């Protein structure tokens, strides 16, 4: 079962005080599995929510610094979660990287400030495109959210040079 329990609030009722239109929200399934019961994790065994995986990685595990630069390769559920977590941590620049232009608009809703279409690379590696997008400085955090082994191997090699 693959559930994307995430969305953007389109409207709110008169009594709602803690949320506003445009806020990103995600569902949490509390009390149905050992992780939920432990109150130490939102990784749910029963409902694998890819968004919360990325969100938690950016917000809690990587502990992204305020005003940092973040690149996210892959803007599916996990990648968009990373983007939202990076935005909430105060990242100054969030570079979304994907092979589909339609992901740019959705990425910007969650906090992407710059978009790179990896198919428009003109034979440049992703790491070279990221360096160009940052004026040669590179990024403080890089998240690979595609699960494509060739991309991971190529980026590791390029970043190591």
Note down, in words, how this protein is organized.
It is built from 6 helices and 6 strands; from the N terminus they run ββααβαβαβαβα. The chain has 161 residues and is α/β, with parallel strands linked by helices. It has a domain at 50-159: Rossmann fold, CATH 3.40.50.720. The strands form 2 sheets. A 4-stranded parallel sheet has the order 5-4-3-6, with helices on both faces. Strand 3 (69-73), helix 3 and strand 4 (93-98) form a beta-alpha-beta unit. It starts with 5 loop residues before the first strand and ends with a helix.
Helix/strand layout:
Elements: E1 6-8, E2 24-26, H1 34-38, H2 50-61, E3 69-73, H3 77-88, E4 93-98, H4 102-110, E5 114-117, H5 126-133, E6 141-144, H6 149-159
Major sheet size, sense and barrel closure: 4 strands, parallel
Q: Would you state the CATH class of the domain at 50-159?
A: Alpha Beta
How does the overall form come out from the CA principal axes?
globular
Q: How many distinct helices?
A: 6
Computed CA radius of gyration, to the nearest angstrom: 17 Å
Q: What is the CATH-assigned architecture of the domain at 50-159?
A: 3-Layer(aba) Sandwich
- Note the gap between the termini: 40 Å
CATH homologous superfamily heading of the domain at 50-159: NAD(P)-binding Rossmann-like Domain
What fold name stands as the CATH topology of the domain at 50-159? Answer: Rossmann fold
Give the beta-strand count.
6
Helix fraction by DSSP (H/I, runs of at least 4):
25-40%
The main sheet orders its strands as: 5-4-3-6
**Order of helices and strands, N to C?**
EEHHEHEHEHEH
Secondary structure class reads alpha/beta
Spans with pLDDT under 50 lasting ≥5 residues? none
């Amino acid at each position: 079962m693959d559930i994307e329990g995430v969305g953007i609030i389109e409207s709110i009722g008169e009594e709602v005080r803690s949320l506003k239109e445009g806020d990103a929200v995600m569902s949490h399934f509390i009390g149905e599995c050992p992780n939920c019961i432990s109150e130490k994790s939102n990784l749910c065994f029963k409902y694998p929510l890819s968004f919360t995986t990325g969100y938690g990685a950016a917000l809690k595990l990587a502990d992204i610094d305020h005003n940092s630069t973040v690149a996210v390769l892959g803007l599916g559920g996990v990648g968009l979660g990373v983007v939202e977590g990076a935005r909430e941590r105060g990242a100054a620049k969030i570079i979304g990287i994907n092979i589909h232009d339609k992901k740019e608009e959705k990425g910007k809703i969650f906090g992407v400030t710059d978009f790179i279409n990896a198919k428009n690379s003109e034979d440049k590696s992703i790491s070279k495109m990221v360096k160009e997008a940052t004026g040669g400085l590179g990024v403080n955090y890089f998240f690979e959210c595609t699960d494509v082994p060739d991309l991971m191997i190529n980026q590791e090699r390029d970043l190591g040079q």
